[in-house]
Amino acid sequence: MTRIFLALLTNLLVGGLAWVSFDTNASELKLHVAPAERLMTEPAYVAVAGAPPGSEVWIEGTFTDNGGQVWSSRGIYFANHMGFVDTSSSASLAGTYQGVDAEALFWSMLPVPPDELDGASVANRQEDWPSFPDFDSWNAAHELRKDPVVVNFRAELRGALAGTAPVATASQSVSFIADGVKRIPVSEGDIRGVLYEAPGGGPNPVAMIVTGSGGGVYEGKAALLASHGITALALAHFNYPGRPRMLLSIPLEYFSESMKWLADRYEQDRVVILGASRGGEGVLLIASAFPDQVSAVIAEVPANMVFAGCCTEDLGSGPGWTLNGKPLPYVDWQYSGLTKSGIWAPSHQSREVFRKGITDHDYDDPRWIPVERIQSPILMITGDADGLWAADIASQRILERLKAKNFAYPAEHINYAGASHVVSMPMLVKSLADRMRSQGYGFLSMGGHPRANAHAQTDAFRKTIMYIKRHGSSG
């Protein structure tokens, strides 16, 4: 009770809303959501004016994804002395999130309609709940992301003043691709993927995205990069039409050919490469093997070692990568103790299972990624609560190796406190993304805390854009 009273007192004393002007003599609630249309990676502002000072105000947001799943959020606030609630400065005391958080009415949504939010929470999630809306999936098809999603908001007085003012409503259209971005399917020789060309005449930085253990193409990320002025190729190397079904014996030369095709198309000397998880391992290997084709490397939640291929249903293994027709030495799954039971029970995490494979090898071990051969800046992005594997430790070990080998280029490691394996995956709804379903095995915990994951994803994507623009070749 004391905590709620202090929060109420704080809200009564704090002003806010410097970004817009309201009529403080208004006799009814006004709900403001700005801008009316935005790109998913741009900030949003939600505020209420016209509430009686000190009154209890509920704000709810909701939308329906392409598959018909309803998603909803709620914040419960007390209006300040001017009758304002501003989500960037007003604390939510209950609902789908607590505290001050301007993004939370979006990222904290749960897969239930508003009238079922009472009692719904991350802590008591239902087993059949999806981890995210269909358009937020890492490999969501273009058809799921080509149109904006409309988020509808309502604000109303509750508590002692419930029903004394009309409900206020507003909406916001959230897009996943900016106007002017061109989507170009790629089928050139063996090269497969989807190219997203940034609008304008250029020249623009050029990047290539390498997928993780799910394969396919990361179109969503490529579209968002292009929306921020970076032409991006979402490259497919397995689990895609015209490519192998699994990550087994993939020639690194395939990536060299893809980089050459992309660089030649835009008259570039080199390209930025980025990838997450097994893709993070992949881009470090690619840049080590073909350093003169790479202008910068962004390794998101990577490994420092070459791991076995994947992902067969029986967890059988073999080489993931080849170079010059020969398999690269690899850390076998069985070496690290990775078994079906070892992944899933009791924590649903595999971080500790992988730790041995990441930490138990000296620099002379041939399974180490020879990162010192890279001839460009390196950025590694991780979360220290990664539940899948200890990418934070792997990245630190990479920095130590680079220092020991007198690496001549900038190398940086950003490690987000409380964030998970999906730290680099831009999403709209992030409340349940700490779990990913895996066919045949139930779900796997990605780790992290929803709020930490949400803010880390926002910041990591912003820094990724800045890094590519700083180090991307312009010809």
Written overview of the protein:
With about 475 residues, the protein is of the alpha/beta class. It folds into 2 domains: about 1-175, Sandwich (Immunoglobulin-like), CATH 2.60.40.2240; about 180-470, Alpha/Beta hydrolase fold, catalytic domain (Rossmann fold). Helices cover about 20% and strands about 25% of the residues. It has helices spanning about 1-15, 105, 140-145, 220-225, 255-265, 280-290, 340-345, 350-360, 390-405, 450-470, and strands spanning about 30-35, 35-40, 45-50, 55-65, 70-80, 85, 95, 150-160, 170-175, 180-190, 190-195, 205-210, 230-235, 250, 270-275, 295-300, 320-325, 325, 380-385, 410-415, 435-440, 440-445. It has an 8-stranded mixed beta sheet with strand order 10-11-13-12-15-16-19-20, sandwiched between helices. The chain has a 6-stranded mixed beta sheet with strand order 2-9-8-4-5-7. Strands 1-3-6 form a 3-stranded antiparallel beta sheet, with no helix packed on it. A hairpin with a 2-residue loop joins strand 10 and strand 11 (about 190-195).
Q: What's the SSE blueprint?
A:
Layout: H1 2-13, E1 30-34, E2 37-39, E3 45-49, E4 56-64, E5 70-78, E6 85-86, E7 94-95, H2 104-107, H3 142-145, E8 149-158, E9 168-175, E10 182-188, E11 191-197, E12 206-210, H4 219-227, E13 231-236, E14 250-251, H5 253-265, E15 271-276, H6 278-289, E16 294-300, E17 321-323, E18 326-327, H7 340-344, H8 351-359, E19 378-383, H9 391-404, E20 411-416, E21 435-438, E22 442-445, H10 450-471
Parallel strand pairs: 2-9, 12-13, 12-15, 14-17, 15-16, 16-19, 19-20
Antiparallel strand pairs: 1-3, 3-6, 4-5, 4-8, 5-7, 8-9, 10-11, 11-13, 17-18, 21-22
